[in-house]
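Slide 14.
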Amino acid sequence: MRWLPEVRNLELDLSADQELLRETAARFIADACPLSTVRQMIGAESDLPADYFKTAGPLGWFSMLVPEELGGGSVSGAGLRDVAIVAEERGRVLQPGPFAGMNIAAATLAAAGSTAHRTDIVPALCDGRAIATWVPGDGAQGTGDRDRIVATPRAGGVSLSGRVRPVQGGAQADWLLVSAGGAPRSGGGQSQFVIHTATPGVTVTPLAGLDVTQRYAAISFADVVVLDTAAVGALGGAEADIERQLQLACVLTTVETVGAMDALFDITRSYAIDRIAFGRPIGSFQAVKHQLADMSLALEASKAIAAAAVGAVQERTEDAGQIVSMAKSWVADTGVDLAQGCAQVFAGIGFTWEHDLHLYLRRITMNGLLFGQSDWHRERICRLSLV
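Slide 15: predicted structure.
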């Protein structure tokens, strides 16, 4: 079946150093958390193998969006392109943990945090000694007023109230980067705070979800008192930072989805070659052949639009927000279609718990729901086009 070429990576034109980064990430995943280990962690108290993040940190997984003077740096100097390489490899083997949240928190605290944040928290995140995730309580997940956090002015700080769900990695996190509305002292703008999960009034409730390879939580704030020293950037002036965080979250989630799609399609392609029916590989039958060809085209289109989003956010182009939303909505819908098409090729065996197909379908589907569903992003494209 030479008409179905195997293309491994996004269209990122990897340099020798970036290819080494990809190979190193793949080897680490194969040693520390292969798919067999991911399966063993399902239903366990934690979804992270021992010292998983502490070992990944020195590999640069959480420091590529952090300036060198704060202990960060990337192999190519284009941090997001390098992070995307790791995200794609993580998607291939359905890796656990809040990878996007860690990178978003580290990047934001490095850029807009206080001296204490940069000195104490950022190095711990870069090294993997602490875990952080983003709590988009300003509506950045497209859930409207249902999941929002409101900041109310108080003497010496603010109080936070509200709830957000689902938060990826919320149950494992030590630190929360919280985005809130309510305009403390600023006339209606958005603000951000970094809060330890042990802060009184913060309740983290683990959630059971479709994606059994990841952990999610509902995080509630019941009049949580936050001092001004916890603010990340100016109170009421976090709109630009939150937009950047949303772009990063969508890009990394989309690239991870493409990695999962690529791995699942490769498994399906191999099965179509190896599975014999009526004396022939099932991939030689016209109906299956056409279905595989359609899925291959959808996969390559997903790689192309994901790569375009990575480039736009890396270069901070004016239309980066629109391109990111195009990529997020396209890959979210196409990924589910591809996974369901793969299930049709596998037929009955693909519907069993023992087969890995359903794990990929779960991850692809859940990634499509995080940080704004497809309809929300399509509306967002229209809104941004009118600006």
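Speaker note: The longest helix spans residues 239-274.
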